[in-house]
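Give me structure tokens for this 266-residue protein.
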Amino acid sequence: MKNLLTTEQLRLKYDPESILKDIDANYEKHLEKLRGWIFQEDNPINNYNTVQQISFLETNDQKDTNLINELLTKLKDTVYFMGLSKKERLVVTQKMRGFYSGLITNYLKRINVIMSDPELLSPKQFNDPIPKHRGIEIVFEILKIISKDLELESKYRKNMPRAGHLTCFQISMGGFLKKLEIIGMSQKNRITLVQQLFHTFKVDWKEGDRENIKLSLLKPSTEYYERAKVDIQNLSNYHYPESLGDNLISNMINQAIIFKKRIRRF
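Here you go.
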């Protein structure tokens, strides 16, 4: 246990907070530039100004505004990465992955240490039976579920493709590109839109022609997005003992979803 860093120690080692703060500040700084890009006359999004599955009580202007705001929000991380060089993008991705991988590894080790002692707080004693510690039993049930998900996440991360200078875009643009697909935008127009976006922000990627955008961005972005979506949905399918109660189970699922979204962000 002495060699296991606490969450605070890992935070000091990788300093993820500085990156997260920069992402927020950078988004606010370039929001108007982002709006300017999305409202360009030749932007393909202008051909898709009707959002389905929105209340019919809203006006077209309201629908368009909701769509634009949703799309801009989904580009929050992307805007930050567009301002970095290839090398800087890779360094940030590796740094954030290192932080979250460290968390997962340490959490697993700590849980395993606790669960390795089945007599915790209820030691057996010759000719002196001791009742089961109900509190510890519940703790062990909870830790088993958490451990299962952490182990699956650890396995997933070990099998992830090696990070490159495009990985940040492949992950951060998933929700954005999926939304464009949902509103009916063709792949051709999605590629055009990405080209315009990267040109507007002068992204360090000279090789970003249409075919490269299709193969190196759109395809892996969809794969990352769909895998994260499935894994998050599966959190509700774990076996949760009824003895934990609905409120606790609901809270565990919600916390697991929040954690999963954070560690899959980079």
